[in-house]
Design a protein that fits this description.
Number of helices: 6
Shape: globular
Order of helices and strands: HHEHEHEEHEHEE
Structural class: alpha/beta
Distance between the termini: 36 Å
Radius of gyration: 16 Å
Largest sheet: 7 strands, mixed
Helix content: 25-40%
Number of strands: 7
Length: 196
């Protein structure tokens, strides 16, 4: 979505709380910590939360203002911040204890998104956790954004056979988004854990 104002989005969301499913995922891991990856870190709220809870964090975003906000917010914490496109990021196999991708992969084509999802599955250590949010096919944006990807719950489960879906929810409702735009949202969100 080339006309999306990512700078405004970063400023609008920088004071939000960490994502609830991320907080839940950290509790599921118990005392198990390690390397975490924040794909499309925005203003750095979730990267900061992970670092404050004992993770070494790699955070990146394509947007320059997001990278700058994350560096400011995570100053002095164990967070490495990089400006990079998610499609160019090398997710090293069997490396991460936790990976979060919150709506970011929906802004890629289906093929790009599929490749990164498979990389995420392989990038997790055994018992590593993936926290995610995607737009579903009934989302308003699906009508006129063929450059984006929209996923069903079944598609995700079929694509990621090494993952145990601990939580998998679906929300369909008309409501305002982070920047106040009202639209019909179809969201697929959850927590999955690598089994093997």
């Amino acid at each position: 979505m080339s006309n999306w104002d990512w700078d405004k989005f970063t400023q609008t969301t920088k004071n939000r709380q960490p994502i609830n499913l991320l907080v839940e995922a950290v509790k599921i891991l118990g005392f198990s910590r390690g390397l975490a990856l924040d794909l499309g870190c925005g203003a750095g709220v979730d990267a900061k939360y992970l670092a404050e809870n004992g993770f070494e964090v790699e955070a990146f975003d394509l947007n320059e203002s997001s990278v700058e906000e994350t560096k400011k917010l995570c100053s002095g914490l164990s967070v490495s911040v990089i400006q990079k496109n998610v499609v160019d990021y090398n997710i090293v196999p069997n490396t991460y204890k936790l990976i979060i991708a919150w709506n970011i992969l929906s802004f890629l084509t289906k093929d790009e998104s599929r490749k990164i999802l498979l990389d995420i599955q392989e990038g997790l250590t055994k018992d590593g956790i993936f926290v995610f949010s995607f737009f579903g096919p009934e989302d308003d944006w699906a009508k006129n954004h063929s450059e984006m990807s929209f996923w069903t719950k079944d598609e995700l489960k079929n694509l990621l056979p090494k993952m145990n879906f601990i939580k998998l929810s679906e929300e369909k409702q008309k409501k305002p988004g982070a920047m106040g735009q009202v639209k019909f949202w179809h969201l697929i969100q959850g927590i999955s854990q690598r089994k093997v």
